[in-house]
Each structure stands twice: as structure tokens, then as C-alpha cells.
Amino acid sequence: MARVVVDVMLKPEILDPQGQAIARKLPQLGYEGVASVRQGKRFELELDGPADEAALDRARKIAETLLANPVIENYEVRVL
């Protein structure tokens, strides 16, 4: 069984209002020194078969068609 992680993040040029709201709140909670925050999504997939390049390719196709919006988001696929 292959365990694969797909991390999805907004592209750097896309405004992230949720990340900005978190960054503004951190000093109020006593957390100083955080320059910026970007909010994202993480998916863990269990795929049949070994954790080989074919499994990663399958996970990339899943990410591109369902988990991420490639117009505004980047994604990274890796073995867990």
C-alpha cells in the first residue's frame, strides 16, 4: 500500500485573506516575529500497490483533476 501526501497551496501571486487574518491575529495572542502566513490544504491518499513513480503519477492526476485548482493553486505530491 502506498501512502501519498498532496499539499495544496495558493499560488504566491494569489491573495490569501485567511492567511492574512491569521497573521494579524498572532501578535494579539502573543506570537511575535511571524512575517506572513499562507493557508493551504493537505490530503493523505492510500493507494493500492507500491509507492513507486506510477503511484506518484496517479496521485498527481488526482490532485490536478480534483484536489487542486491549477489556475490558482500549486500542489506537491510526495510519499508519506
UniProtKB/TrEMBL annotation:
The family line of this record is: Belongs to the PurS family.
Summarize the subunit comment: Part of the FGAM synthase complex composed of 1 PurL, 1 PurQ and 2 PurS subunits.
Q: State any single GO MF term.
A: phosphoribosylformylglycinamidine synthase activity
Q: Which UniProt keywords apply?
A: ATP-binding, Cytoplasm, Ligase, Nucleotide-binding, Purine biosynthesis
Could you identify this protein by its name? Phosphoribosylformylglycinamidine synthase subunit PurS
Q: Where is the signal peptide?
A: none
What this protein is reported to do is described as:
Part of the phosphoribosylformylglycinamidine synthase complex involved in the purines biosynthetic pathway. Catalyzes the ATP-dependent conversion of formylglycinamide ribonucleotide (FGAR) and glutamine to yield formylglycinamidine ribonucleotide (FGAM) and glutamate. The FGAM synthase complex is composed of three subunits. PurQ produces an ammonia molecule by converting glutamine to glutamate. PurL transfers the ammonia molecule to FGAR to form FGAM in an ATP-dependent manner.
Catalyses: N(2)-formyl-N(1)-(5-phospho-beta-D-ribosyl)glycinamide + L-glutamine + ATP + H2O = 2-formamido-N(1)-(5-O-phospho-beta-D-ribosyl)acetamidine + L-glutamate + ADP + phosphate + H(+)
Pathway in which this enzyme or protein is active: Purine metabolism; IMP biosynthesis via de novo pathway; 5-amino-1-(5-phospho-D-ribosyl)imidazole from N(2)-formyl-N(1)-(5-phospho-D-ribosyl)glycinamide: step 1/2
Its main subcellular localisation, reduced to a broad class, is cytoplasm
The reply to whether ATP-binding figures as a keyword in the UniProt entry is yes
Q: What class of enzyme is it?
A: ligase
InterPro entries in the cross-refs: PurS, PurS-like_sf
Q: What is its EC number?
A: 6.3.5.3
- Matches recorded under HAMAP family: PurS
Q: Where in the cell is it found?
A: Cytoplasm
